[in-house]
Write a structure and sequence with these properties.
By secondary structure, the chain is an alpha+beta fold. The protein contains 8 helices and 12 strands. It folds into 3 domains: 5-77 and 250-283, no CATH class; 88-126 and 177-244, PH-domain like, CATH 2.30.29; 131-173. The strands form 3 sheets. A 7-stranded mixed β-sheet has the order 6-5-4-11-10-7-12, covered by helices on one side. A 3-stranded antiparallel β-sheet has the order 2-1-3, sandwiched between helices.
């Protein structure tokens, strides 16, 4: 069975120089293509029906001066799910971690960790609408109107006063608010005891820092910096990537591939942050 495959970008690109040639390949306008080329993080551009078709298209793009690489969907699907770390210990020859699965402790020799990635995750979080009391400005204004009407026509003011009392008792519901939440992540890829891939994730505000021992500081921001420094010092051999620490990965908007690559429906893809991390690991730069 043929394996669906993706065309993956490998930035940075000279967008002004490459946009015309890439636009001819894709049948898009140079402006549309330029927006793709300017995005500084690797992302999926298209899905092809087979890996062979994807390689043919990648060769065509390379001839136009655009660096890409081909990823079979089966390789992406074969990755294990990411494992969030609850606590850690920095041992002399290994990183010991406790995951959020009760009783699950892993011990990974430092040399088994091949990739170290720093990323920024941005998420929109909706806050529930709250019921609020109205301000008294309308009620006070209606009272002033009632006083004026009583001067002109006794009896009319009582009607306005009644409306004022109803308005004063009403409550309003504020519109739901959406907040942007940003948090720093560190992904580690390692080879486990049985030769399997291990994908760990440290989250700045979700990991315990007791493993820093005497180096532990009062805030998570400070402790995160200490932990990252410690990991850097112990992982000089690991491939390091921090391209996504200032700009969050985005949800891919796939372009319909041109000939010789028949298009394909990619199905459900991982979240943008998981997908970017996986691309960095599988593409190895």
């Amino acid at each position: 069975m043929n394996d669906l495959a993706f065309i993956v970008s490998r930035p940075p690109y000279d967008a002004d120089a490459l946009a015309p040639a890439l636009a001819r390949v894709w049948g898009l306008t140079p402006m549309e293509v330029r927006q793709r080329l300017l995005f500084p993080l690797s992302e999926i551009w298209s899905a092809c029906a087979t890996e062979e078709d994807a390689r043919a298209l990648s060769d065509q793009l390379r001839a136009a001066g655009v660096r890409t690489w081909v990823l079979a969907k089966s390789r992406l699907a074969a990755l294990p799910p990411v494992t969030p770390v609850a606590a850690f210990a920095l041992e002399a020859d290994a990183l010991a971690v406790e995951t959020y699965r009760e009783g699950n402790v892993l011990r990974l020799p430092w040399k088994s960790i091949s990739h170290f990635q720093l990323m920024l995750e941005t998420a929109e979080v909706a806050r529930a609408a709250k019921e609020e009391k109205p301000k008294d400005d309308t009620s006070k204004g209606m009272k002033r109107t009632a006083m004026a009407l009583n001067l002109m026509a006794p009896g009319l003011g009582s009607l306005v006063k009644a409306a004022s009392s109803v308005a004063k008792g009403k409550r309003t519901t504020a519109s739901p608010r959406t907040d942007t939440v940003r948090r720093r992540l560190a992904d580690l890829y390692a080879v486990g005891e049985r030769g399997e891939t291990v994908w760990l994730r440290l989250v700045e505000d979700a990991v315990g820092y007791a493993g820093l021992a005497e180096k532990m500081l009062p805030t998570s921001i400070e402790n995160w910096q200490v932990l990252m420094t410690e990991l850097h010092s112990r992982l000089p051999h690991a491939r390091f990537d921090e391209n996504a620490i200032k700009l969050s990965p985005r949800t891919p908007s796939l372009m319909a591939p041109p000939a010789p690559c028949p298009g394909a429906v990619p199905g459900r893809l991982p979240s943008p942050i998981d997908l970017y991390s996986a691309l960095m690991f599988l593409g190895d730069g």
